[in-house]
């Protein structure tokens, strides 16, 4: 079950950049969501401009694979936001829209998960972190279906089971562990501040749903899985198309030269 986890008792280096990305994103998430709880639509748009600036700045230090993963994550998560929030009403933002800072925010969240996943701290203590996440999220999920809370959370328990599958069967467990921390952070702050609210009853299955659901990190694991799985094929296709274009251009010049002769 742990075959995709890093080697235990190994020595790993610490990259300051990885911790900087994580610290910046955790800080920006907290400030942005609290500000947006009482802000205007114009403020949302301005925050979106800032978020795009931060994301593009952080991507300058990444390789092309990570950049492509972030692009896919932003595109896929943005489509998911419009479907799950605006169309399905599974959760709703204050203005009934998808705020301008959300798409680049998803990019920063994904990049943070990647940065933490490759950090020396996460690699060294992978199994201990996994144990902590499973225990905490598991207890949260059990509490949601225990009957004690006023708002039940059957969806959270279901998502927790999905999260476990990702964690122990997926190819990138460290990314999923890191996603749990940043997504739990943003969900707790966003719902507590009133920036968005999850529906009491999930619109598809009709199950009770917490605000937020305990296993909500599973949705972000899906984003990560799509980004990781789609980056390599897209880069390969882009490379082939570039090579084809370069190969076609000289042939046209040669043909033109032959006609002139």
Characterization of the model:
- With 261 residues, the protein is mainly α.
- The chain has a domain at 16-126 and 171-199 and 220-254.
- It is 71% helix and 2% strand.
- The protein is built from 9 helices and 2 strands.
- It has helices at residues 16-36, 41-59, 64-87, 102-118, 120-124, 126-144, 154-169, 173-193, 217-260; strands at residues 91-93, 196-198.
- Strands 1-2 form a two-stranded antiparallel ribbon.
- Helix 2 packs parallel to helix 4 (102-118) and helix 3 (64-87) crosses helix 9 (217-260).
- The chain is globular, with a radius of gyration of 21 Å.
- It starts with 15 loop residues before the first helix and ends with a helix.
Spans where pLDDT lies below 50 across 5 or more residues:
none
DSSP E strands, number: 2
Shape: globular
Radius of gyration: 21 Å
Bin the strand percentage: under 5%
Strand count, sense and closure of the main sheet? 2 strands, antiparallel
Number of helices: 9
Percentage of residues in helical conformation: over 70%
| Structure class | mainly alpha
Distance between the termini: 68 Å
Mean pLDDT reading: 90
The topology string of helices and strands comes to HHHEHHHHHEH
Strand order of the largest sheet: 1-2
Main attributes of the structure:
261 residues, mainly alpha, two-stranded antiparallel ribbon, globular, 2 strands
Helix-strand layout with pairing:
Elements: H1 16-36, H2 41-59, H3 64-87, E1 91-93, H4 102-118, H5 120-124, H6 126-144, H7 154-169, H8 173-193, E2 196-198, H9 217-260
Antiparallel strand pairs: 1-2
């Amino acid at each position: 079950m742990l075959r995709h986890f890093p080697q235990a008792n190994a020595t790993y280096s610490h990259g300051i950049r990885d911790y900087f990305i994580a610290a910046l994103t955790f800080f920006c998430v907290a400030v942005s969501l609290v500000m947006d709880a009482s802000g205007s639509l114009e403020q949302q748009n301005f925050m979106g401009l800032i978020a795009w600036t931060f994301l593009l700045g952080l991507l300058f230090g990444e390789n092309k694979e990570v950049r492509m993963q972030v692009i896919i994550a932003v595109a896929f998560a943005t489509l998911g936001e419009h479907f799950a929030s605006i169309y399905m009403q599974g959760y709703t933002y204050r203005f009934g829209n998808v705020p301008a800072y959300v798409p680049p925010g998803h990019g920063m969240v994904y990049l943070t998960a990647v940065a933490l996943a490759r950090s020396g701290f996460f690699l060294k203590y992978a199994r201990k972190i996994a144990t902590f996440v499973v225990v905490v999220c598991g207890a949260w999920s059990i509490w949601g279906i225990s009957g004690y809370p006023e708002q039940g959370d059957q969806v959270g328990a279901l998502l927790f089971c999905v999260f476990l599958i990702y964690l122990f069967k997926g190819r990138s467990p460290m990314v999923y562990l890191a996603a749990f921390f940043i997504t739990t952070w943003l969900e707790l702050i966003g719902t507590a501040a009133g920036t968005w609210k999850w529906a009491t009853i999930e619109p598809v299955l009709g199950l009770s749903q917490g605000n937020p659901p305990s296993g909500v990190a599973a949705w972000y694991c899906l984003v990560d899985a799509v980004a990781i799985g789609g980056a390599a094929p897209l880069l390969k296709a882009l490379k082939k198309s570039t090579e084809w274009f370069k190969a076609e251009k000289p042939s046209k010049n040669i043909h033109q030269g032959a006609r002139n002769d």
